[in-house]
Amino acid sequence: MVYYKTSEEIELIRQNCLLVSKTLALVGSLLKPGITGKEIDAKAEAFIRDHGAEPGFKGYRDFPATLCISPNECIVHGIPSDQEFKDGDVVSVDCGVYHNDYYGDAAFTFAIGEIEQDVMDLLMVTNESLYKGIEMAKVGGRLGDIGWAIQDYTQTKHGYGVVRELVGHGLGRNLHEKPEVPNYGKRGKGPLLKEGLVIAIEPMINLGTKSIRASRDGWTIETKDRKVSAHYEHTIAITKNGPDILSDHSYINETIKNNAEINEIPRKK
Ligand code: MG
Ligand code: MG
What we know:
The protein has helices at residues 7-30, 37-50, 117-135, 143-156, 250-257; strands spanning 54-55, 67-71, 74-76, 90-99, 102-111, 161-162, 168-170, 177-181, 198-201, 204-206, 212-214, 221-223, 229-231, 234-239, 242-245. The chain is of the alpha+beta class. It has a single domain (7-257), classed as Creatine Amidinohydrolase (Alpha-Beta Complex), CATH 3.90.230.10. The longest helix has 24 residues, at 7-30.
């Protein structure tokens, strides 16, 4: 069952997505070589609770933390650890909150210190692909248009691996609702996109092949070839005026600009 949201519900989800975005901005101000995922996670949890909300992931299917922190070859669902980050790390941070009976969800991949150009390119292309997917999220379009746009840009044009097993999702009173939103697909195929649909679009794109494997901790999903993976996510609402991006990466970009240890992710226009 797909739940279409009223504009009041969309505003509640927007408030949550803005808190998620500000939490990720806090992460962007803290990240540097020597800090650990656990330290960042504790600060993120306190920040969310100080704003009267609850971490959306903690306890969800027994996930133990506020943030999913997935460095380098880890794609998503990484558990914050005591491992110190180091120069050259690429770190996907995914955050959800729950407040006023609704969720919010967004993610950003940060690049610490000196990064190989091919890895920076992967981050930029993955981030751009998110917006190419969002552009297709309009009334009268098809769900397959979104995945097609992401796959066309990342795989067909740039030769990256598009993860198949993990997908975006509807979001509302539940963190994961129907429909699934794959990062691959056929143009003009799939369910019709209608006003009020709220979905998280989240390309997970690998520098190498699309193949993944589960790690021993039971949560972290990694690339099979151990090459780097990138992940950017927005929650959006489909309105009659087009896609409305409910999360806001500009908060993150602002703190990155002021953190000399973290690279900006430039977007071509
Ligand atoms: Mg997320
Ligand atoms: Mg998500």
